[in-house]
Amino acid sequence: MRFGAFVPQGWRLDLVGVPKEEHWPTIVDVAKTIEASGFESLWVFDHFHTIPVPTQEVTYEAWTLMSALAATTETVRLGQMCTSNSYRPPAYLAKVAACVDVISRGRLEVGIGGGWYEHEYLGYGYEFPKASVRLSELEEAVQIMIRMWTEDEVVFEGEHYQLAGAICRPKPIQKPHIPVWIAGGGEKMTLGIAARFAQYTNFGWSFEEFKHKIEILAGHCRKIGRDFDSIVRSSNFSLVCASNEKEVNEKLDWIQDRYRHFVSEEKAAEIRADFASNSGTPEQIVEMLRAWKREGLDYAIVVMLESANDRTGLELFGREVIPAMKD
């Protein structure tokens, strides 16, 4: 199994309490910890407003971080889970991504989805059409991006986007193009788009959901004659990793206490429970991940909320979980 980890960027209230002048040094330090701990990739979210509720706390913009992290890391791959297609015209995004791929010397992953966070759409003045429209836009956008990375001049006449001779220079370093991750588990459209265009997918917030969605993806692949195993299947895991159960519970208590300043006690307890469902000692986490692997998971991307303040969980995961899952 392959592994990635998210850097803190504020979206999940993970920079609360860190002085603003220390935000970027903290992000860089966590990125370098991820790089040194054996993770293949580091990740950011593409959002403008915090969750589970919009607040006045910071959320750093995803592609700004991509460019900056490309210049301040050496070997770790760089991804977004996931870019909201609606926030940037696809030809522009393809240009930005190509530049980041060159700056990083070929380490970029492009995660993209249809978008969902209505509050920030409306707050930033974006239209928020129904899901079928957003996903139809996504399908055109992915085609445009791949063509921008592989063709000299792109003419495109779609329902949502039109290009009249777009040139993308520099071209990405990676061949044939930057890997595309389609994120989301929509059964009719999103997974269908993934079957046609993705090298990677990302879906399944629970074990049972993942098992169901993977069968849907396999069905889409059969319909179009694509080898199902040519698509890498990933999912995200919000968790705590600690050396003993006492430390695990202390970190879970810290997460709950953080959120109770922004949401109800009931919601804070629910968030704690979500983290707890994937958390444990390295041995417990390995057991959990092996069950997912048996159902077809290839790539796990972890969120450790405390990483801005405490890197020990990332380091422990890198020392004990990653080698065990490679055996």
Strand arrangement, major sheet: 3-2-1-11-10-9-8-5-4
Order of helices and strands: EHEHEEHEHHEEEHEHEHHHEH
Look up the CATH topology.
TIM Barrel
Q: How many H/I helices?
A: 11
Biggest β-sheet strands, sense, barrel: 9 strands, parallel
Q: How many whole angstroms does the radius of gyration measure?
A: 19 Å
**Assembly state (oligomeric):** single chain
Low-pLDDT regions: none
Shape: globular
CATH superfamily label: Luciferase-like domain
Number of domains: 1
Task: Compute the separation of the termini in Å.
Answer: 9 Å
Mean pLDDT: 97
The level of helicity is: 40-55%
Would you report the number of β strands? 11
CATH architecture term: Alpha-Beta Barrel
CATH C-level label: Alpha Beta
Strand content: 5-15%
Determine the structural class based on helices, strands and strand pairing.
alpha/beta
Provide structural commentary:
- The protein is of the alpha/beta class and 327 residues long.
- It has a single domain (2-326), classed as TIM Barrel.
- Helix content is 45%, strand content 14%.
- It has eleven helices and eleven strands.
- The chain has a nine-stranded parallel β-sheet. It has a two-stranded antiparallel sheet with strand order 6-7.
- Helix 3 packs across helix 5 (131-150) and helix 8 packs antiparallel against helix 9.
- The mean pLDDT is 97.
